[in-house]
Amino acid sequence: MEQASLASFSAGSVGMGVGGFHVSITGNTGHGFEVYTTTNLSGSWQLLTTLSNVAPTILFTDPSTNSAQRFYKARQLP
User: What are the backbone dihedrals phi and psi of residue 44, each rounded to the nearest 5 degrees, phi first?
Assistant: First the structure.
């Protein structure tokens, strides 16, 4: 029986800075990421962007940080 391998990735260097909210995402090269956002954890998640991962670590910046609170999640694509 063959087991499916799960892609692993991590987020680091999270914070506000010049130009908006910044996070670095590290994962397997060649796998893209979908980044989702919501202002309410009990609400629905909206696709914010799709990123190409041509290097092990990519930087994501969200300039739209005018909400009182905003949550993010990322999903690595196969």
Answer: -90, 150
Structure tokens at 41: 């954890």
- From edge to edge, which strands make up the β-sheet containing 71-76? 46-51, 33-38, 71-76
Q: In what order do the strands lie in the sheet with 57-62?
A: 10-17, 20-26, 57-62
Cα separation of 9 and 28, whole Å?
7
Q: What is the pLDDT, as a whole number, of residue 31?
A: 82
DSSP 8-state secondary structure symbol assigned to residue 42? T
Tens-digit pLDDT profile for residues 39-64: 899 989 999 999 888 888 888 888 87
Which helix (H) or strand (E) segment is 75 a member of?
strand 71-76
